[in-house]
Design goal:
single chain, alpha+beta, Immunoglobulin-like, 4 domains
């Protein structure tokens, strides 16, 4: 059956190169013989012997339901007169045929007939850790772990992948998770991803399917320490006093008492100055937070970024303590153990 499908593809490719007038310069240089369900894959057209500076318009039949993920192809040159045009598609769950490809280089117009591509399901033993991602490369650039509430931690990751369906990512056995932002530029995909886990877990492990290695690859995310990523995360997503903050309070309290006692013993103004500095620093830790009025129905976001997941809704007009601020967002404590980010547009005007 697979051999028959391969012959169908080869036959279609031969017809494609002959479809334009004799001596045609356009043909498919790469089409996958088979793809997996939900896989992102490239399709490349070769323009051979193309005059330098000549503009070429290439597009797939707009009437077809099957369209590339980006309307404009990635253009790469090879030598003086060869050019490659690469489009990226995402497979569904059923076999399909690429739409007819229309080409206009100013001298002549032509059509390359669509090519049949079979779609298969991934064939491996039951895998509980697969996150539903198929990619030719996947890595976590940075990550950060913060307290989400009394029992859970929030893990925030910046993910970089190639030819990946990151929009389908879902880490098994985690209830609260989501994609905050996705930026796709041809083969390269960047995403901001978060998930909430019990605070006693030290790490999270999941797998993705590597389409180059043709095997599952394990990814481990440590939740045992914090890794600074962006300015948003550096503003401290932790809703409560961290252990480090408590240590600082104890330290400055001890130093204040210590320098005051030394001053009483030696009557040296130097120690009095040190005492006052320690005391001032200590007072800043206990100063009450600024408060803002938040209107009824305002959204409490998990992160201070565009399109962040909503963690809660403000039920009634409230005065809330401001823990931090980042850009157009205020970090507030809505209820004990429940914090999030409020947009400044939701702050009461009167």
């Amino acid at each position: 059956m697979r051999a028959l499908l391969a012959w169908r593809i080869v036959f279609a490719l031969v017809l494609s190169t002959l479809f334009l007038a004799a001596g045609a310069k356009y043909s498919y240089s790469y089409i996958p013989r088979q793809v997996y369900a939900h896989q992102v894959f490239p399709v490349t057209i070769l323009a051979a012997g193309l005059e330098r500076g000549r503009k070429v318009t290439i597009f797939f039949d707009p009437k077809s339901e099957i369209q590339p993920m980006q309307s404009s192809p990635l253009v790469e040159k090879s030598g003086k007169d060869n050019r490659f045009y690469t489009f990226y598609f995402k497979a569904g769950t059923e076999d399909f045929t690429l739409p007819n490809l229309y080409i206009d280089d100013g001298k002549r117009k032509g059509v390359i007939k669509g090519v049949y591509i079979p779609v298969a399901e991934l064939d491996f033993p039951p895998e509980k850790r697969w996150c539903s991602v198929i990619a030719s490369g996947f890595r976590i650039k940075t990550s950060q772990v913060s307290n989400f509430d009394e029992k859970n931690n929030l893990v925030y990751m910046l993910v970089e992948a190639n030819e990946a369906n990151l929009e389908d990512m879902s880490i098994p056995e985690i209830e609260e998770q989501g994609l905050e932002k996705l930026d796709r530029k041809y083969a390269n995909v960047y995403a901001e991803y978060y998930f909430v886990i019990p605070s006693e877990l030290n790490d999270v492990n999941f797998t993705y399917y590597d389409s180059i290695k043709e095997q599952l690859v394990s990814v481990n995310v440590s939740t045992r320490y914090r890794v600074s990523t962006t300015a948003a995360q550096e503003s401290d997503l932790n809703p409560k006093d961290s252990s480090f903050t408590k240590v600082k309070k104890y330290t400055f309290s001890f130093l204040s008492i210590f320098f005051f006692l030394i001053f009483l013993l030696k009557r040296d103004l130097f120690y009095l100055v040190l005492f006052l500095v320690m005391l001032y620093t200590l007072i800043t830790f206990f100063m009450p937070h600024e408060k803002i009025c938040v209107g009824e129905g305002a959204k409490l976001f998990i992160l201070p970024i565009e399109n962040s997941t909503v963690g809660s809704i403000i039920e009634s007009r409230s005065e809330l303590s401001v823990i931090n601020r980042y850009g157009d967002y205020y970090k507030v404590e809505y209820r004990p153990g429940v914090t999030g980010w409020i947009k400044d547009t939701d702050v009461c005007k009167n």
